Amino acid sequence: MTTEPVAGAAIDVRGLRKSFGALEVLRGIDFSVARGEVVCVIGPSGSGKSTLLRCVNLLEEPSAGRVTVAGTEVTDPEVDIDRVRRRIGMVFQSFHLFPHLTALENLTIAQRRVLRRGRAEAERIARSHLARVGLSGKEAAYPAQLSGGQQQRVAIARALSMDPELMLFDEPTSALDPELVGDVLAVMRALARDGMTMLVVTHEMSFAREVADRVVFMDDGSIVEEGTPEQVVGAPRHERTRTFLARVLDPAAVEMEGAGEAEVAAEADGTAG
Ligand SMILES: Nc1ncnc2c1ncn2[C@@H]1O[C@H](COP(=O)(O)OP(=O)(O)O)[C@@H](O)[C@H]1O
Ligand SMILES: [Mg+2]
Fold it and tell me: Which atom of ligand 1 lies closest to the CA of 20?
């Protein structure tokens, strides 16, 4: 196990630990993401995926370890974290748009306040990113007038408007109706193709298989295994990975299992049929 950061990595995490009180949520994480690489993080609910992402941009303060983003050690107490965060785009499960601002205004406000861009320049950049996510013509729409999928694409365009060096996605399609998921994944796929560095927490295994350079499987605060999608999703080495994949790839099978168990229990009770 290396303890030195990987030179030139977009994200490098060494010996990362995070506890909330007595609960240790990250139990020593080591991994890195190369520039231009797409890494998908998968794993059961509660395994620490969101906490890992939040430690990368210091929305959570790590209890131990070192996190380096694009050559800057963000866990250095002297670091100007606002400066670092500006280089990281973050997209959450819930879209976090300002409800009282139009799509265009949602994209220009941080450009103007944080990057000090003038109105005309900010609007030009905003329009180009709305077009990139397939939302030309929706500039004047308020979030409530947009579908969940459209709102999430506005959120992605907003992040892109800040010229991030890398993007973190935390289950970006989990809150969406199934028919809206595809458009968001298509935008993310295009972004990956354009060379964006992306760290993506997702349960979309077909996306992970097709787009990820690498898949990381987490369970109980640790990385259990990582490798290419073919290795981790196609031929997992660990039982915990296999169990998890069986559940996400075929939830119906698990429901059937559950139904079977209920039937058996009912029979044992003498209440079946
Ligand atoms: N702010 C917090 N305070 C206390 N416990 C937390 C906090 N954030 C997350 N946790 C706990 O940490 C564990 C991992 O959470 P999380 O990183 O959200 O997992 P995942 O994203 O994989 O579902 C869970 O047990 C969760 O309840
Ligand atoms: Mg989460």
Answer: 4
Provide the 10 A C-beta neighbour count for residue 69: 24
Atom number in ligand 1 closest to CA 201: 21
DSSP collapsed to 3 states, 11-27:
EEEEEEEEEECCEEEEE
pLDDT in tens, 175-217: 999 999 999 999 999 999 999 999 999 999 999 999 999 999 9
Instruction: Give the position of tokens 């595809």.
Output: 182
DSSP characters over 110-129: HHHHTS---HHHHHHHHHHH
Q: Residue whose CA is closest, atom 6 of ligand 1? A: 20
Nearest by Cα to 150 from 192, 97, 196: 97
For residue 31, list its beta bridge partners. Answer: 13
For residues 111 and 95, the answer to whether their CB atoms sit within 8 Å is no
Q: Is the CB of 2 under 6 A from ligand 1?
A: no
Ligand with the closest atom to the CA of 171? 2
Instruction: Give CA angle at 27 (39, 73), nearest 5°.
Output: 60
| Ligand closest in space to the Cα of 92 | 2
Contact 50 CB / ligand 1 (< 6 Å): yes
Q: What is the pTM of this model?
A: 0.90
Q: Give the integer Cα–Cα distance in Å for 24 and 227.
A: 25
